[in-house]
Amino acid sequence: MRVWRAIAAAALLAAAPALLAGEIPIDARRSGYSFMGPDTRAMQDDDTSNPGMLFVLEGEALWGKKTGNAEKSCADCHGDARSSMKGVAARYPAIDKALARPVTLDQRINRCRTNHQQATPLLYESRDLLALSAFVAHQSRGVAISAGDDPQAKPFVEQGRELFMQREGQLNLACTNCHDDNFDRRLAGAPVTQGQPTGYPLYRLEWQTLGSLERRLRSCMSGVRAQAYDYGSPELVALELYLMSRARGLPMETPAVRP
Amino acid sequence: MPALINVPAKAKRGGVIEIRTLTSHIMETGFRHTVDGKLVPRDIITSFTCRYNGDEIFRADLFPAIAANPYLSFFTVAKESGKFEFEWIGDNGYSSTASASIIVE
Amino acid sequence: MPPTRRQFLSLAGGVTAAGAIPIVTLHPLQATPATLNSAIRNVVGEAQIRNGRVKLDIPPLVENGNTVPMTVSVASAMTADDHVKSIHVFNEKNPQPNIANFYLGPSSGRPQVSTRIRLADTQKVVAIARLSDDTFWQIAADVVVTLAACTEEMN
Questions:
Q1: A 7-36 near C (Cβ less than 8 A)
Q2: Is the reported ipTM for this assembly greater than 0.90?
Q3: 3-state SS, residue C142
Q4: Any CB–CB contact under 8 A between B35 and chain A?
Q5: What's the CATH code, domain B3-104?
Q6: pLDDT digits (tens, 9 = 90+) for C68-87
Q7: Superfamily for domain range C29-147
Q8: Nearest to A80 by CA among A63, A68, A92, A57
Q9: Does the global pTM surpass 0.90?
Q10: C109 and B67 in contact by Cβ < 8 A?
Q11: Would you identify the CATH topology of the domain A47-258?
């Protein structure tokens, strides 16, 4: 297995310079779901066996709960999430007009907390933030991803694309080397996917809990032995935006289950 | 803690039905260490019980080898309309309950 | 003076050479086949365990050992006189040999249970059923656990 892994890594390094990094055409874009085995698929498919749904349930309770000095709940402004939040997560990260830069869904939730609920922001990767984010994103399940369409977002999509193409870390690998050039091959025992972020926050069997796209990106970065960007950093937001725009047209799956 | 329960709303008398439960729990094994070498204490659900109109119909002892957010599926004969009660008991005084009703015709 | 690296290595080498004390293992809490056997005997006692009647559905190759779906079923009429009383599941190489005990009865209708388990390594999983006549039946399955290429560091 170890030798195999070394060979796989060497092959990636050797093959990469000869290939031009290109966008995956729309009809060839594939969710990570299509790379999974039947058991993991079954776990995602049935809402009463998908552990991500436990977080959606918690998020639903938080949506209706009054919080902060303003004594307001999400529902007090946004009403029934089933209609008001449908399609929203498929457009995120999105430009915040006041900040004139993109914000993630997590950051949007926290801006609502500070600006409208007068509550403290929730910590990245905290149970409550993941639960709210999962509940909101779940309302977009089945909706085609359209993030990055806003003309104001274009420079940030481009920034994310540059980061995606940029080699980094001790293994000197860029995201594109695996996820554009070598998807459908295997790295050690695991299939290399296209890295389409269709189901975040998602339940990863490895984590045994729900986690954000930023958590996944950070573990990829430590995988190539690079210093990971901080949660909420402009670089991670730009990468997230690029990845979502790269997944344009794929349906949202939140909460997805992945190995 | 929330739980997801799947019991059919209606069943034929004498029919065999599947019951599925999923509950939130970290199931910390007690065998892991932090980076500074401290043992993370065990925190698991140790017991699950399902009662059907008061009678115990299924029970399980769980160990650290059960994955986080325990999932259980089992069967029972639909004998009469009424209520299923579920109880999870664990370390550090953990206790959680849920229920679901069924109409048997 | 604290021991130098060289001294430490020679000490470690000495222990290995002596052979009497095995060098410290990387997984001191790993259940060995002996602990698996004693865990099984704790449940079964001295009774004979026969092969058959039990079916264990578990993927032969799992994508992540942290959450492995598993179903055990038993061939039984599930009547008052002939039914499954309990099902016990064990592993060979986790830090602890027990996975779960399930208690059923004639009102279960179908002797089948599913759950999700943790397997620390490629290993054998054993399921044993106790029937109402107090006979024990078993099945074993080998599971290969693959590791993801890029796993997160523990923090």
A1: 8, 36
A2: yes
A3: strand
A4: no
A5: 2.60.40.10
A6: 999 999 999 999 999 999 99
A7: SoxY domain (2.60.40.2470)
A8: A63
A9: no
A10: no
A11: Cytochrome Bc1 Complex; Chain D, domain 2 (1.10.760)
